[in-house]
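debug: dumping io for the single-chain case to check the tokenizer round-trip. Nothing else runs in this session.
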Amino acid sequence: MKEVLPYNKDGGCIISISGLKKSFGDMVVLNGIDLCVKKGENVVVLGRSGSGKSVLIKLMVGLLKQDAGSISILGQAVETANQKEMNALRLKIGFLFQGSALYDSMTVRENLAFSFVRNRKIHKRTLVDKAIAEALDDVGLIQTMDQMPAALSGGQKKRIGIARMLILRPEIILYDEPTAGLDPITSVEINNLINKVKKQYDTTSLIITHDLSCAKFTGDRILMLNEGKFIREGGFDQVFDTSDPRIRDFYNYNFIQTT
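debug: decoded output
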């Protein structure tokens, strides 16, 4: 097995994955994934729906168990972490779910306040309210604080999901299909917000998507996932400068040019 690269806060891999495999019955989803994400990078994993992208990040946060291989995040080996170690690691990782995962019975304020249940160090109401206001202001939705999720658009729900992550000041953010189900204009707004978060909060991000516009505008580096393996890596133009039919067909079918 390929050795997992050591965590080095001064420029090494803060996410290091080696030989990662995952199957469900006879269906092989990931078949030997190697990945190094360095501090400050926005790395995009690009692939068709059902290619295993979401399985990858669920393995990274311990929601699924791999069949083989190693995952190290911020120096913590995920596969050997006990519950206490895993909980501590998750406090450093923001996770934007594909469906935003807001509680319909809670206001926006209450949804964000619920995040503090994960961080017992922040308990004073004044500090909680201040953090909520700052996070909502950063995503441009301070006016929605007392609204219910049902009153929000899909794009607004995505922004609220990002605000909920930002409250805990994560070192790493995992975005699961951040533009799924959004119109092109709203998708561009979310892409811009992802880049703003990286710059303002100095985050490292792994962005899972099949949206080529999202990949182009947010990714410092792109990896193409196909049949359980990464088949190409580089900048956007590098990845698609190929005659490989697997990549060209994906480009021709999916790409929507936005400016």
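debug: round-trip ok. Residues 1-10 have pLDDT under 50 and may be disordered.
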